[in-house]
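Hi there, hope your week has been kind to you so far. Do you reckon you could talk me through the fold, stretch by stretch? Thanks so much in advance, here it is.
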Amino acid sequence: MAATEASEKEAQRETNGATLAILMRAALALPVLALPVRAQAAEVGEIGFALLGYKERGLMKISEPLMWGKAQIGDNWTVSASALVDIVTGASPELVSNQSGSPMRTVTGASISDRRTAGDLKVTRRFGPLTLGASRAVSNEEDYRSRAFGLDATYELEGKLTTFAAGYGKSNDRVGSADNPDLDERRDTKEYLLGITQVISSTALVQSSLQWSRGKGYYNDPYKRTLTFYPDAELPTLYDDTRPSERDTLAWLTRFRHHDPGRGTLQADYRYYHDDWGISAHTLEVAYQWDFSEAWSVRPALRYYTQSAADFYGQVVPRPPPETLSSDQRLAAFGGLSPSVRLTWRLDTITVEGTAGYYYNAANLRPGGGTEGFVPLRAYYGLVTIVKSF
């Protein structure tokens, strides 16, 4: 499931939770990997700042400033850290009605305003061809709290043409609700990763990784309900969003890069995702980075996404009501297109990047058609990044 396909605040949580690769997110500082007592000056590293803006047509608006830094200490130690703030405003779809037999998404009249703060710290230690990493991450908002840690390792074969990677991560989350102060539920997720990077030639490489996770706990969205009007009933049936209490996921990601000296780099990514909720998804992205000079480059890209619906997805509450049911559109069957373009400028030790992109999700973008009544999602985003190396 892609967070970029999401249209709600909950999708932002999932993006920073179990669906991200653990090598990019989690963290833990183990005693065996503690920094040496004798402090040393940083010799190699970078600091960076990024600002992300995301706007859905008629719905959510997100602003996210992010800062990070990375430093090499001595010959073998590396420390990296980041911090961000998510500022979310807008309106949220809450329920689906079935008046006159036509499913319809209804937007709540109340606006959403929330702020999430998050940070992580990672320490790595190199032992010749073996590199070990440990990290710790935290995330807090009004109705959601996450604590995560992770371990990872990479091993380079002689010649450094082949690199193996492995990782483990665990997150412990607490789910609440601004509408229900008594709600305090737990969700725990364990993640595992295996990967390989192979240099094919002096200008090409391929990278492939397999990630799977097992989660248990509270997956319901406390802000979503399904409302159904029956012709033979005076009062409608209202059903709270109810999902299974477990989720097993599998994701396979493969990347290919081919550099044409003096011209640019071809980039192709494919990701397959499947979970025991019944969702199968495919993501294909193709991009080409043109290098106009040592200072300037541009990278247009196009991504296509498609997924099947969850087994318990439905727009109408049946009689009798089932044990699990959700009308959350992120669990429906649909497809999506996302074009983007990135411009990069480099000057000595400073790199500046600007990215602009567009999302369009619709039922007719899925081969064979998607869920009837799916409301198209249109969103725009921009990202500006400044990096200083030293």
Summary: Residues 1-42 have pLDDT under 50 and may be disordered. DSSP finds two helices and 18 strands in the chain.
